[in-house]
Amino acid sequence: MKKYFSFLRIRFFYGLQYRAAAYAGIVTQFAWGFMTILMFKAFYKSNPAAFPMSFAQLSSYVWLQQAFLALIMFWFFDSDIFLTISNGNIAYELCRPIDLYDMWFTKNLANRLAKVILRCPLVLLIAFLLPPPYSLILPQDLFSLLLFALSLVLGSLVMIALNMLVYITTFYTLSPFGLRVVAASIMEFLSGAIIPLPFLPAKMRLILQFLPFASLQDIPFSIYNGHIANSQIIFNISIQLFWLISLVFVGKLFMKRALKKIVVQGG
Asked: Which sequence spans correspond to the domains of the chain?
């Protein structure tokens, strides 16, 4: 465990170096957040009662997306891992007395934590100071806030577990780029990054609720803004925990089989 904590610490502090990129990203996130909220505002003016959540809840949903983007964005990958697989440097990784899956999982977690630490506080602060109903509202009570934090952690870990499947699949492909584009496009839609899941048709929403996609951001953000009733919160968190355990198990099994057939050319 100590060696993985060392990987986490090293990669975390390495990620904190890119402050200028983080500040530029904050500007982009506010621009995207305002654009999304104003777009939905136009729809809400036509018939507010037709939407599954209030406009204030939607605004909070969008600002949480922007504040924790580094934790819940599927399209963020560690390019070093893809390069390690494609150029043969994976041979050096296999010589280390570590579990490769756990090491890559730890590195991805550290990268995401570093990015969110640089961006999240300022985004949340400014979002709170905006005039209602465009601002970020507080959750119903402290207990909901704690459950949101737990759900966000689980959602982030589920996201990394899904990322790991893309890394491992690269062992079987000549290039990771096609797979990255297809996987990111599908996941962005199914996780609610483009359209919040409560706005999708009821039958589709019911199916997605039991799949890992809702665990990534819809469950934690819906807990925060009160869209998920208190009686359903534990059930939804249980779904997140189930998918985390299942995806890590499948990922480790997939990794084990991939490493048995790996061929490193050159020398």
From this structure: 2-260
